[in-house]
Design goal:
Elements (H helix, E strand, L loop, with lengths): L1 H15 L7 H22 L6 H11 L12 H13 L2 H23 L4 H9 L16 H22 L2 H17 L3 H14 L1 H4 L6 H23 L2 H10 L5 H28 L14 H24 L15 H8 L9 H29 L10 H16 L5 E4 L1 H9 L6 E4 L11 H7 L1 E6 L8 H4 L4 E9 L10 E8 L7
Helix pairs in contact: 2-5, 2-6, 2-16, 3-4, 3-18, 4-5, 5-6, 5-7, 6-15, 7-8, 7-9, 8-11, 9-14, 13-14, 14-15, 17-18
Length: 507
């Protein structure tokens, strides 16, 4: 009897509340539209080049359409390539905001399954207070790509659990497979789902039905081409992960690394908690998840992945990166709203709306300060301030003057090579660090046939790094200097270059 009465009180409160700013659903629609428009256009307008991960881990790889790359699985690189081909430089910015907007949508849809629509929208609105939904989003990468897939998987799992419908298990399998093709930590979310299923009586009954096993089959089917590639390539992504994570040398470092990760995650979600408190959305009593199966579900899926990351780092000694937490906090707003059920009728939704609007503006200003204005003032241009088009035109002319044939291969690191390749016509392949394992689309036979333009950034001295200097047949030509487009007082950018002549060159 108490639950219908509480729902009735919420409905009556909603009717009595002055409609000064519209409903939470209206605010959420405005937030999503603003995310798509402002977070796409403003970073694009203030950029001379694309962000680091978009270039080095997106376009440098995605152009080759492989089933895997030496760092990560392929899905985000394919998506970046598709949007760049379709829309040019603004494409990856738009793609990233579509990912964020889709995350908001699935969180809202999930919340509507067990709470009134206005509170589901409120839970989604609170995500604007999470760092991962603002400043990092213009740089589409594997972390951003996971966000909508984790939210979708959570929604499909809840629907499958509650309804038992086979279509929802199939959808869960598809979301899980695509999530693993985006980045392997999706396995942490799937593990949290399995743990929730095992400890929850109403969910455990699903294990005696075909649904979970069909979901598993669909997931494996989607991931299987990448798994085949992984075995044939010798598991390069796992080797990269171990090297990237690092391993603290001391016992204190081994403890400090996972603790630092959790502290960073708390800092990243702190604005959402503060906004909720300002709006009056906080529990009157300590949360009792065991008495609320929906809250229990949210806590398992939200806290399982970061705590698993903490424990794995602590046990194995592997380091952990703060940004790996990007997809892990999609359910934070719903947890806050569900835990504050007894206080929702007295919450101030206008205050919430003002705070969300303020956070939205602060996020945009913070992005511009960090990536445009402060680098200009300090004469140290950021990645989005590199003169990409000027570099591409200059080195295309250099290659043409030497070889009189289209440039097909650029040997460089993923950033410089990808930056120049993306604005070259036709687009050449990037031979990353002149390493055949990192760029298997380049073979000795292709190199001998097509030759390569070799590029490196000059800091001290004019010679190339050892990885490039060892290329057979390399002839070092010289160094070019370029002014920065938005920081004319900064020291000019110096790029060294050399040429590996094609085997059938007419010279």
């Amino acid at each position: 009897m108490s639950q219908p009465s509480a729902a009735s009180n919420e409905l009556q409160s909603a009717r009595r509340e002055p409609n000064r700013l519209g409903s939470p659903e209206y605010w959420l629609a405005l937030l999503v539209c603003g995310q798509l428009v402002f977070w796409t256009i403003i970073p694009w307008l203030f950029s001379w080049s694309l962000p680091l991960d978009v270039v080095s881990d997106g376009l440098s790889w995605g152009h080759e359409w492989q089933w895997g790359y030496y760092k990560h699985p392929p899905l985000p690189s394919w998506a970046a390539e598709l949007f760049f081909d379709a829309f040019g430089n603004i494409g990856p910015y738009l793609l990233s905001q579509i990912a964020v907007a889709t995350t908001y949508l699935f969180v809202f849809l999930l919340g509507r399954l067990f709470m009134p629509t206005r509170w589901a929208a409120t839970g989604a609105l609170l995500l604007a207070g999470i760092y991962y939904f603002s400043i990092p989003t213009p740089e589409f990468n594997h972390n951003v790509a996971q966000m909508p897939l984790w939210a979708a998987a959570s929604y499909f799992y809840y629907k499958a659990w509650k309804s038992g419908g086979l279509r929802w298990w199939i959808a869960l399998g598809a979301a899980a497979g695509l999530g693993l093709l985006a980045k392997y930590p999706t396995a942490l979310l799937l593990g949290a789902m399995l743990a929730h299923c095992l400890v929850t009586r109403s969910a455990r009954t699903a294990l005696s039905t075909p649904g979970p096993y069909i979901a598993m089959f669909i997931c494996i089917l989607i991931v299987s081409p990448h798994l085949v590639w992984l075995v044939r390539a010798g598991f390069p992504t796992l080797h990269y992960f171990v090297g990237r994570a690092g391993s603290p040398a001391s016992t204190w470092g081994r403890i400090a690394a996972p603790c630092k990760f959790l502290i960073a995650q708390l800092a990243d979600i702190a604005p959402a908690l503060i906004v909720a408190a300002i709006a009056g959305l906080y529990p009157r009593k300590p949360m009792r998840a065991a008495q609320d199966e929906n809250l229990n579900f949210l806590l398992w899926l939200a806290l399982g992945p970061p705590l698993s990351t903490f424990l794995l780092s602590l046990v194995t000694g592997l380091g952990v990166r703060d940004m790996w937490g990007a997809p892990m906090w999609n359910l934070t707003g719903l947890i806050i709203v569900e835990a504050a059920r007894t206080r929702r009728i007295s919450a101030s939704l206008p205050r919430l709306a003002y705070c969300v609007a303020g956070l939205f503006v602060i996020g945009l200003c913070g992005y511009l300060l960090a990536n445009v204005f402060v680098p200009d003032w300090e004469n140290r241009p950021s990645r989005i301030q590199w003169p990409a088009k000027t570099l591409a035109d200059s080195f295309a002319a250099t290659w043409d003057s030497h070889e009189h044939r289209p440039l097909q291969i650029i040997a460089a690191d993923g950033w410089i090579g990808g930056l120049i390749a993306m604005d070259s016509k036709p687009r050449p392949s990037v031979w990353i660090d002149a390493n055949f394992n990192k760029a298997p689309w380049i073979t000795p036979a292709r190199l001998a046939r097509e030759g390569a333009l070799v590029l490196w950034r000059v800091h001290k001295g004019d010679g190339p790094p050892s990885s490039l200097a060892q290329i057979p047949g390399l002839k070092i030509v010289g160094v070019k200097s370029f002014d920065w487009p938005s920081a004319p007082r900064a020291e000019p950018l110096r790029i060294g270059y050399g040429i590996v002549a094609p085997g059938n060159s007419s010279r």
